[in-house]
Amino acid sequence: MNLQKTVKSTEFYVALIILLLCMVIQMKSGQFFTGNNLVDIVRAFSVPAMFCIGEMFVIITGGVDVSFPAIASLSMFVVCSQLEDVAANPLPYFLVAMLIGLAVGILNGVIIAHFKFPALIVTLGTSSICFGIMQGVFKSREYPLCAPLKEFGEMNLFSATNPVSGLTSNMPVGVVLMIVLVFFGWFILNRTMLGRGIYAIGGDVKAAQRAGFNVFGILVFIYAFSGCMAGLIGVLRSTMLLAVHPNNLEGMEMTVIAACVLGGVRMTGGKGSVLGAMLGMALLIIVDNSLILLGISTIWKKVFIGAIIIIGTAASAIEVKRNERKLAIKMNEGGK
Amino acid sequence: MDVIKNAINKDKNLAQLLVVFLMVFVLCTALKGSMFLSVSNLQSMGKQFPEFGLLAIAMAFTLFTAGIDLSVVAIANLCAVLMAKLLTILIVPDMSSSAVFMMIAAACLMAFIVSVLCGALNGFLIGVVGITPILATLGTQALYTGFAIVITNGSTLGGLPKQLSATVNSGVMGIPVPLIIFAVFAAIAAFIISKTTLGYKLRMLGTSAKASTFSGFDNVRLFVTNYVLSAVFSAAAGIIMLGRFNSAKADYGASYLMQAILIAVLGGINPYGGKGNISGVIVATIIVQMVSSWLNMYEDISNFYRQIIWGGLLIFVLIYNYVANEREKKQAMKG
């Protein structure tokens, strides 16, 4: 019974597709399962995957947050350009960035939860404000990374060298943060009352309210969480790139939303798992990184990503329709 | 007096917008009078707003049906890129001027055909397959931009015939050509939404898809028509952009997407569907252009401050409309 359930789940299909894709790439290039390629993929995976956790919470409640790249960029740039010589260790930088992110996130959450506006439009607005503040008030530009953060960024867990090409890739320490955050996300969703509340709101707000969930509080929490994490991830990103690129994250929201949905997080709310979102992101990152290994020019990248999003979302939409029809038939039969 | 009162009651939203319009106009004139009212400034304003105004109307169509079209800018760019590619292939050095115009017309026709196909795909994914509009158009946005990148190889396409940019940048009796194109398309949009059964049905669909089905409307067809209309207006914006920049690139006008949503919402289109009209969007477009031209006149204000203003304005307008609605509801309850 449990096996049957697993085989039918979105996560299973996505995992299967990833496996097939990896096999094909390996057969074609012989370069996929090499140490440095895998490290490169994990490296590229870590930042968007962390964004996925916050975004996932939001999507499960039936909203969407497109402001996190702006929040991350703003807090990263402010921290790196204004606090240059304040501290000798990286911790204060992360904390201040998280506070900035938290503030914007709370703003998002309060507006969305109080007025019940479409989350997309509100977060588009705050996103525009954040980018505006970063570019206008702080006059953002490429900026060198300050010493403590640079040191943090240069720390590696281990490095892998490809014996054939001689290329070396380093596993950054930030990956540990990713693992912690992913576990944290899983824990909240599956082991706490808060997680139950998040799912309940996505299923039916009114029912959640009657069941005694503090809908306003939970909504504010998830947007605040998403913003706070965005601040953290922004600084982390700059340590991974070893420089401050203020516009580097623009457009990331689309990839993250697509990954969540590909992994079975339902856009209308109430459904989704951390594992699914991670698998969805892994699929997108592997396609993104491996087209060259397959001998396809990188100019086709966007076409492939678009096609994957459309096919993935179409599959789940058709699935939903089929289930609804089944349900309707069952109900009719029950009525007789 | 009664006439004015009736007009205000008939369309409160438009009346409000006109008041805002007047206020902004007076403010701009008072602060930067000679510069703001100069013919050259008015003309350059008339050249600038049609492209994002058309995109805002395209967005408005989809907001009517409680959807959203994130692919408007991508469609505009794809059409512009295809036109540029086609024109550089079709036009040989010593072609007569009239033949060149024929080619340009043919390229425009092709752009519209492509946009119909793009819109039909959006409509199909939303209406038939049942993907939520945000996701479907998110996917097609990547897809269309992707095609544009493949066609241009990621670079800028230039080498266009002089006639195209000359036409778009010229004017008839001082009125810039883009403004004329905008006026024609805006009139068509306003006509469709407020005077035809199609517009009525779209509004019904936006109010409640279920009610629309039970009223015997063909929802799938309405969705497809809706997104095709949106795509055609985007293509028109793309043609103007092609002429104005005299080149095409896959990622021109990235900031227009946000601006299009802002203008549509500012213009009184309810993002939950069913409410608003095109005249509001047109007035909102002009307000946004006035503010942005006015800000441009201060050299020490960075362009980026506009983003803060747009974002803040978007949220402010949402809250304002909400409060106004609540008050109306309360009054209705009392009455």
Description:
The complex is a heterodimer of chains A (336) and B (335). Chain A is mainly alpha-helical and 336 residues long. Chain A has a domain at 45-159 and 170-250. Chain A has 14 helices and 4 strands. Chain A has helices at 2-8, 10-29, 35-60, 68-82, 91-115, 119-137, 147-154, 174-191, 193-203, 205-210, 215-241, 252-262, 274-290, 301-335; strands at residues 143-144, 156-161, 168-172, 243-244. Chain A has a two-stranded antiparallel sheet. Chain A has a two-stranded antiparallel sheet with strand order 2-3. In chain A, helix 3 packs across helix 9 and helix 4 crosses helix 11 (215-241). Chain A is globular, with a radius of gyration of 21 Å. By secondary structure, chain B is mainly alpha-helical. Chain B has a single domain (40-323), classed as ABC transporter involved in vitamin B12 uptake, BtuC, CATH 1.10.3470. Chain B has 14 helices and 2 strands; from the N terminus they run αααααααββααααααα. Chain B has helices spanning 2-10, 12-36, 39-64, 72-90, 97-129, 133-152, 162-169, 177-195, 197-207, 209-214, 219-245, 256-266, 278-296, 305-334, and strands spanning 171-172, 175-176. Chain B has a two-stranded antiparallel sheet. In chain B, a hairpin with a 2-residue loop joins strand 1 and strand 2 (175-176). In chain B, helix 12 crosses helix 13. The longest helix of chain B has 33 residues, at 97-129. The two termini of chain B are 24 Å apart. Classes of the chains: A mainly alpha (336), B mainly alpha (335). The A-B interface holds A 64, 111, 115, 117-118, 120-122, 124-133, 135-137, 139, 254, 257-258, 261, 267-268, 299-307, 309-310, 313-314, 317-318, 320-321 and B 68, 125, 129-132, 134-136, 138-147, 149-150, 153-154, 258, 261-262, 265, 271-272, 302-312, 314-315, 318-319, 322.
